[in-house]
Amino acid sequence: MEINRQLNLALSKVIRDAREAKGMTQGRLAGFAGLSEVYLSRLECGRRGASLNALIQIAGALEIPAAELMRRIESELADGPAKPIRKIGRPGKTHQNEFS
């Protein structure tokens, strides 16, 4: 079975956008949804597809109806999803050069 890359990218964007709109970390969303943080990270990077069960759990954790999450995914697919932005490192962590 061929993996639909466009679907994975649409899932990625919609889940990340909804999570960030709620001000949640990946760890917090994963915990509320009963999923592993690694699984959620892979979803948000577009490297993994999601089961219907996982999408319903994510929608519940984000406090949005599952049908609305699906509508957003369909809309993103219609628009032609962009590749997800990869953020390196932990959020809020700044690195300073000790020699400056």
Question: Can you walk me through this structure?
Answer:
It is a single chain. With 100 residues, the protein is mainly alpha-helical. It has a single domain, classed as Orthogonal Bundle (434 Repressor (Amino-terminal Domain)), CATH 1.10.260.40. The protein has helices spanning 5-21, 26-33, 37-44, 52-62, 66-79. Helix 2 (26-33) crosses helix 3 (37-44) and helix 2 packs across helix 4 (52-62). The protein starts with a helix and ends in a 21-residue tail after the last helix.
The total domain count is 1
- How would you classify the helix and strand content by structural class? mainly alpha
| Principal-axis shape | globular
Biggest beta sheet attributes: none
Keywords:
100 residues, mainly alpha, 434 Repressor (Amino-terminal Domain), disordered C terminus
Question: Could you give the topology of this structure?
Answer:
Layout: H1 5-21, H2 26-33, H3 37-44, H4 52-62, H5 66-79
What is this structure, in a nutshell?
This protein is mostly helical. The chain has helices at residues 5-21, 26-33, 37-44, 52-62, 66-79. The chain has a single domain (5-78), classed as Orthogonal Bundle (434 Repressor (Amino-terminal Domain)).
